[in-house]
Amino acid sequence: MEAAFPDLPTVAGTGDTVVEDFLGNFIPLPDGGFEFSYGPLVAAMREGRALLVDDATSSRRRSLAVLYPAMGGRRVITIPGYRNERVEAADGFYVIAGHNPGVHGAVLTEALASRFDVHIEVATDWDLARHLGVPAPAVRAAVALNADLAADRVTWAPQLRELLGFARVRKPTDWRRP
Asked: What is the pTM of this model?
């Protein structure tokens, strides 16, 4: 997504993500006062841009619920913490959410999932992993573990991110066979 959209407004989904991470919040000023700073959802809606919610299913459902009216038919939100200001989505606004459906407990609610026009599953490209320098034995092990995952024999298997991390930290002599 970042390659397709330079300067992509993003909200990182964590267990600590709150509604204000989307809408904005008051920030302190040097003179002791406060000023409201709009969040990435508001900016994306006003500017007609895409918003990425990275690792969406790691966020609390209450935090993600702020997206419902933005993505619904009216495409309007209010900012309760700032004068109940009303924000309408400009043409071009939409939400992209990334999540890892294989992670235990990582479930995109039906209420939110139904608001996305397109759902795309991106599987690991094992040839790309090899091309990017992941040793062939590590790729073979990952392929085997993913087969075990699909058969419910294990609860986790490495994907491209983990393989690339391994390739970055391994010693060149760790793998002698191609």
From this structure: 0.80
